[in-house]
């Protein structure tokens, strides 16, 4: 059974992905987050383990990685430092598969738009991951919405971002994450734009 470590598990996309994984599949989930009592409602589910931790706390992160198959990182903040910490901890733990949420615009792939410094943490963290030897998939969602629908397309690095001015639902991004987790070898060492249809 696949074991998944979700970093930043109280993030909005992460909570939708957790719900979809629990509904549809049989993976074991380790939910890693700060302020863990926020997920107290999930206590008692035998497919879920909850670890309170900051991703920048490397010893705690390394310990959480033991025995896991996939890391799914759903973070914000100092993402360059977070990415470096995750890559180091995965190397030490002998892990390979990483799914990392980033943002539309990091490669200036949206015609006519340059998002500037606000995307620096996303650009720099993606560069750290792309320079690693991990089996990564970077996910670059368009502007996000909480609409209850699954409807999206993807583009690969080097392509123009499709339909960049329409919001894509977090549920759509979560659906893609579930597919990447449950189908081995999909989009390995790729960076995918995720757009609304
Ligand atoms: N808004 C948009 O339209 C848009 C578009 C594209 C991409 N994005 C980006 O996509 C990412 C995921 O989106 P989302 O809606 O799921 O974001 P979110 O709800 O803000 O989730 C990010 C999570 O990262 C956690 N985090 C930050 N630093 C951490 C650390 N050092 N250790 C552990 N956890 C940490 C936060 O934890 P706490 O809850 O403890 O603070 C938060 O739960 C975000 O970076 C977002 O900015 C957003």
Automatic annotation (TrEMBL):
NAD(P)-binding domain sequence ranges: 8-183
Per the UniProt entry, the signal peptide is none
- The record lists the membrane-crossing segments as none
The record's listing under SUPFAM superfamilies reads: NAD(P)-binding Rossmann-fold domains
One Pfam family assigned to this protein is: NAD_binding_10
**What InterPro entries does the entry give?**
NAD(P)-bd_dom, NAD(P)-bd_dom_sf, Polyketide_Oxido-like
What is the protein name stated in its UniProt record?
NAD(P)H-binding protein
Upper classification of the source organism reads: Bacteria, Pseudomonadati, Pseudomonadota, Alphaproteobacteria, Acetobacterales
PANTHER family reported in the protein's UniProt record: FLAVIN REDUCTASE (NADPH)
């Amino acid at each position: 059974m696949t074991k998944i470590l979700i970093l930043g598990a109280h993030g909005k996309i992460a909570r939708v992905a957790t719900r979809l994984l629990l509904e549809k599949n049989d993976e074991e989930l380790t939910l890693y987050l700060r302020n863990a009592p926020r997920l107290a409602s999930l206590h008692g589910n035998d497919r879920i383990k909850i670890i309170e931790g900051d991703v920048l706390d490397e010893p705690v992160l390394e310990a959480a990685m033991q025995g896991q198959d996939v890391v799914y990182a759903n973070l914000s903040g100092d993402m360059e430092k977070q990415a470096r910490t995750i890559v180091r901890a995965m190397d030490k733990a002998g892990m390979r598969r990483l799914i990392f949420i980033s943002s539309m615009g990091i490669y200036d792939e949206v015609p006519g738009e340059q998002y500037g410094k606000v995307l620096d943490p996303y650009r720099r963290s993606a560069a750290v991951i792309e320079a690693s030897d991990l089996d990564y998939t970077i996910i670059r969602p368009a502007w996000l919405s909480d609409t209850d629908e699954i409807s999206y397309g993807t583009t690969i690095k080097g392509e123009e971002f499709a339909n960049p001015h329409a919001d894509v639902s977090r549920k759509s991004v979560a659906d893609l994450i579930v597919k990447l987790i449950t189908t081995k070898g999909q989009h390995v060492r790729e960076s995918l734009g995720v757009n609304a249809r």
